[in-house]
Amino acid sequence: MTAGPIFRPGQRVRVRAWHPPGHVRTPFYLRGHRGEILQVVGPMPNPEDLAYGRTDRPPVAVYRVRFARRELWPEDGDPHEDTVVADLCEHWLEPLETRA
Amino acid sequence: MSSGHSHPHPPKQPDIEDGPYSWHMALTDAVADLLLAKGVITADELRRTLETIDAATPAQGARLVARAWCDPAFRARVLEDVNAAAAELGIDAGAIPIRAVENRPDLHNVIVCTLCSCYPRYLLGAAPDWYKSRAYRSRVVREPRAVLAEFGLLLPDEVRIEVHDSTAELRYMVLPLRPAGTEGLDEEALAALVTRDCMIGTAVPLAPPRP
Questions:
Q1: Is-contact A86 A30, C-beta < 8 A?
Q2: CB within 8 Å: B168 and A41
Q3: What is the ipTM of this complex?
Q4: How many domains does chain A have?
Q5: Which one of the listed residues B2, B118, B133, B198 is annotated catalytic?
Q6: Which end of chain A, N or C, is more open, meaning fewer C-beta atoms within 10 Å of its C-beta?
Q7: B164 to A85: CB separation less than 8 angstroms, yes or no
Q8: Which residues span the domain enclosing A89?
Q9: pTM, whole model, 2 decimals?
Q10: Closest residue to A83, CB basis, from B160, B166, B170
Q11: CA distance B86 to B76
């Protein structure tokens, strides 16, 4: 666990297309999709630890990440610019661009 | 009354105990019984906690919204920290952080929890049943305009809809736009315009009809 958040607002990220067993709070409909960091929420207990009573584990950085509906469901052909924002843990995100 | 009368009766409406006793109900009862038996909590503490949770109503959120409409500095504090702003009004919004997402003329916000039923219940009271339904949870992220239309809310194409999926230990509420034509209303009258659905985002406050 690194100290502090590694992503910054405005940065493009991709949600990992993982499918681990157990309790996770990353919705399936976002996995593998591209989004943008909207806000750093800060360190919070990791639900993947909390669900099993592992309260001694370090907290994880949580971000509000914005997704374009058109990117999530291009097959719908909806022309609107509507968006979805979800709260996601840092280890579920990978950078889309390498930092300068 | 004579037995053996033959006119038809409608089926009896089931009492709460007449439904199936599910695995999760049994688990809840077992954990509660253990906590009581081991003296971790008392029956009165359990009862009082449930009473406190059930005492929260959308009226608390409506007071917060009306104050935010009337006081720009308070509005800024609501957007910063809903729980702290609520405390200023004497409202205990609980320990789980609540974020307010603000509607603008070009942006309409809607709240959902696609994974379960997360809802700012310590501030707004119990969520409506439809909020917990699979239909609302799955459809509002994918086809928000169709879902809002079913609620009677038709938004212009140029208004972007942003759906907030409460997937972590944060809860959301919508800070709606103050409707036009309410300039003369005081805070209490304004609060009466703000319904539960306005703070979920499936409705918008309307000015009262002109007398």
A1: yes
A2: yes
A3: 0.94
A4: 1
A5: B118
A6: C
A7: yes
A8: 12-95
A9: 0.90
A10: B160
A11: 13
Identify whether B116 is a catalytic site residue: yes
Q: Which of B175, B171, B184, B183 is nearest to B204 (CA)?
A: B175
Nearest chain A residue to B99 by CA: give it: A41
User: B152: number of CA atoms within 13 Å, CB side?
Assistant: 6
| Cβ proximity of B109 and B162 under 8 Å | yes
Containing domain of residue B152, as a range? 55-200
Chain A residues within an 8 Å CB radius of B161: 80, 82-83
CB B86 within 8 A of CB B62: no
Mean pLDDT, chain A cut into blocks of 10 residues (100 residues total): 80 96 95 97 93 93 97 95 97 80
> Which residue of chain B comes nearest to A79, CA vs CA?
B157
**Mind telling me how many Å the CA of A83 is from chain B's nearest CA?**
5
In three-state secondary structure terms, B44 is helix
Residues B53-63 have pLDDT tens digits of 899 999 999 99
Query: Residue B207: inside a domain, yes or no?
Result: no
